[in-house]
Amino acid sequence: MLLSKITSESLSIYDFVRCRNHLLVLLSVGNAHRTGELTNFSIADYEGGMKQAAAENLVFTISEHKTASNHGAATLAVNRKEAQLLASYMKLRKLPQYAKAEQFVFITATLSKMTQSNVSSALTALSSANPL
To answer: Which CATH superfamily is domain 14-125 in?
Structure first.
């Protein structure tokens, strides 16, 4: 779904949430972070990381998170395939129906910033829907 040509008219909130949850799983497993880094991943952080678009791997820096004062900025590293999926998701995220959403990459169906509990629920829901 993320790699198909989805328009704002054909995208349901259910489809958006499925795409978001898929990326949350990929990024949380691939980076082994707490959920806080993903909830604080802002659109500005995303755009900053995209400046290295010619690189094989992209690294996004997330400076606003719970342990930033002790441990510094968190990094979110993605390979080329994950970067392509994330870019496709961001095209959806920037559709007009999400224009009034908070300025974070991952948002809820009500357009607010996700909490750590929301991310945990999304990861659980996706893994329950797709058992190994």
So the answer is: Intergrase catalytic core (1.10.443.10)
